[in-house]
Amino acid sequence: MLRDLFTNVKKQQAIMPNAKSKSDVPEGIMTKCPECKHVEPTKELGKLLKVCPKCDFHFKMTAQERIDSLMDEGTFVSMDDHLVTENPLEFPAYAAKVKKDAEKTGLNEAVLTGTGKIDGNGVAIAVMDPHFRMGSMGSVVGEKITRAVEKATELGVPMLIFSASGGARMQEGVLSLMQMAKTSVALNRHSEKGLLYISIMTYPTTGGVSASFASVGDINLAEPKALIGFAGRRVIEQTVREKLPEDFQTAEFLLAHGQLDAVVHRVDLQDMLSRIIRLHTKGEAAQ
């Protein structure tokens, strides 16, 4: 149904394309696509899951927007909202920045976790939010993801993780890096129980997140043109002393080189996840 709506809007744009944007577009009312410069009413863009109807550019989503677009209405129950970040290394201004992002996003940290249903199938889910400290992974993010995985194992349901992160959080030093191992161990225990883990990589999935839980799914999916990689392009080029392909570290590049199972348009994602869950759980996840 959503795919039909999206297709109809694109057809309308082809017949009557919007005029080029002006520099004085009212903030918040209209949204300009950074890819094709098409201007769309923000409210209408939200109905299209924040995908440009003209060029298919995928805007970043908040964690709550992602949950609302995927989960059956009224089924999502968040977990561990009481966990809050401290400043163990006494990094200057860190606590104030975390507090500011919490007020801006309404989240306690850069990931929203919980349980719910997708098309009637029970799942546990963790959705990273790039609007909170660029989705970076500190101690609380790692702890929340780990607890969500452990809940999925306890309930015997699939685990879904949406990655959107700049990597490990520098203000927490080695405590942040420890989360790479902690989350991976929890996922390994989940796998030992014969349970499904689906990793969905969005823009961006980089650094320690890409090198840990984001890349070890039983099925690894990504959104179109998502940036996925560990180190940055310039660092790699300077190290190998070679010019990298233009599409290097994009979802499409990784798919072509066997590191992804599929690149899935956002409007097709719910249906894709539903089918995968049904196929791999034999209906056991419908609880």
Automatic annotation (TrEMBL):
Organism superkingdom: Bacteria
Organism per entry: Sporosarcina jeotgali
Record's subcellular location: Cytoplasm
PANTHER family tied to this protein: ACETYL-COENZYME A CARBOXYLASE CARBOXYL TRANSFERASE SUBUNIT BETA, CHLOROPLASTIC
NCBIfam families reported in the protein's UniProt record: accD (TIGR00515)
Functional summary from the UniProt entry: Component of the acetyl coenzyme A carboxylase (ACC) complex. Biotin carboxylase (BC) catalyzes the carboxylation of biotin on its carrier protein (BCCP) and then the CO(2) group is transferred by the transcarboxylase to acetyl-CoA to form malonyl-CoA.
Biological or metabolic pathway of the protein: Lipid metabolism; malonyl-CoA biosynthesis; malonyl-CoA from acetyl-CoA: step 1/1
GO function terms (MF aspect): acetyl-CoA carboxylase activity
Keyword Transmembrane helix belongs to the record: no
Cofactor note: Binds 1 zinc ion per subunit.
Taxonomic lineage: Bacteria, Bacillati, Bacillota, Bacilli, Bacillales
Record-linked Pfam families: Carboxyl_trans
Name of the protein: Acetyl-coenzyme A carboxylase carboxyl transferase subunit beta
Family: Belongs to the AccD/PCCB family.
EC number of this enzyme: 2.1.3.15
Subunit comment: Acetyl-CoA carboxylase is a heterohexamer composed of biotin carboxyl carrier protein (AccB), biotin carboxylase (AccC) and two subunits each of ACCase subunit alpha (AccA) and ACCase subunit beta (AccD).
PROSITE patterns cross-referenced by the UniProt entry: COA_CT_NTER
